[in-house]
Amino acid sequence: MSKSAYENAVTKREELKIELQKIEDFLSLYQQFESNNYGPNQPAKYAETLEKTGELTAVAHRRRAIKKTSPVLLKELVGTILKEHGSPMSRRQIVEAIEVKGYVVPGSSKTGYLGSLLHRYKSYISSSPEGGYWFTGYEIGQNPERIK
Prior knowledge:
Layout: H1 3-34, H2 43-53, H3 58-65, H4 71-85, H5 91-100, H6 110-120, E1 125-127, E2 133-135
Antiparallel strand pairs: 1-2
Helix pairs in contact: 2-3
């Protein structure tokens, strides 16, 4: 056997070892997911497991950053964002600000979901005549720190 044939065989063996390790990692993760020890319900453990296997992806990073968003929490977030901004904001601007804070607006149409949510809480926040959303019953420019 020539030296290059031997070198090719050694290289192929190393490639196969790496591939086999990836398969073993996959099977291990699959078994863990099936036993409900890891996965989307426990994103921190999911990301930690992927880090250990070297398969951490942007999705795992994103899952770890996501904070649960109930309608009441979203309403409070919108209030906080409007106070910080100090003037009316469009639904698109509000959605972007919510996501910058690490929260997620559910639904396929985030602005549509937010509009429905704000309509439900129109006694707190409503669309202003000048455009955008602001606190119901308060003048634009009024000190939003006093608004509860």
